[in-house]
Amino acid sequence: VCDDYHAPAATGVSRIALTIRDGRRVSTNDAYLEPARPRVNLEIRGDTLVDRVLFDGRRAVGLRTAAGEEIEAGEVILSAGAIHSPAILLRSGIGPGSGLAVGSNLADHAT
Ligand SMILES: Cc1cc2nc3c(=O)[nH]c(=O)nc-3n(C[C@H](O)[C@H](O)[C@H](O)COP(=O)(O)OP(=O)(O)OC[C@H]3O[C@@H](n4cnc5c(N)ncnc54)[C@H](O)[C@@H]3O)c2cc1C
User: Fold this and answer.
1) Ligand 1 mean position to 21 CA, how many Å?
2) Among 50, 61, 52, 63, which residue's Cα sits nearest to residue 89?
């Protein structure tokens, strides 16, 4: 049982998967990215925000950064997390455009 992980109102016990090396938790970066850093076919860009994926017809051919730089790629693997991956896809024209409607759930306070 790990006290850090139970919801305040929950009861019960379950097993959870933790990434642990030598008895200590390690981040996704330390577990996966750092060992891959020396690869000659890997370029890591920090402080670079992806705006959208670029397409040639139905094929992803690169991406555009928030700074406006366009980067060509033979293959695009989108892994911006559970929240930002769908947001990037929406900005790229994939999925319902109505999802981009800022304030669509706005409701006036009851008076
Ligand atoms: C507190 C916590 C503890 C966890 N512990 C474990 C564990 O011990 N073991 C385990 O297996 N899983 C664990 N998980 C789950 C695990 O972290 C996730 O499943 C995993 O990180 C998902 O990987 P991902 O690459 O899909 O997304 P993420 O790790 O979320 O990576 C997405 C990356 O994309 C970047 N990004 C987002 N938007 C943009 C953009 N527009 N442009 C450029 N970059 C962008 C983000 O900065 C981020 O670096 C834990 C999760 C949490 C929240």
Assistant:
1) 18
2) 52
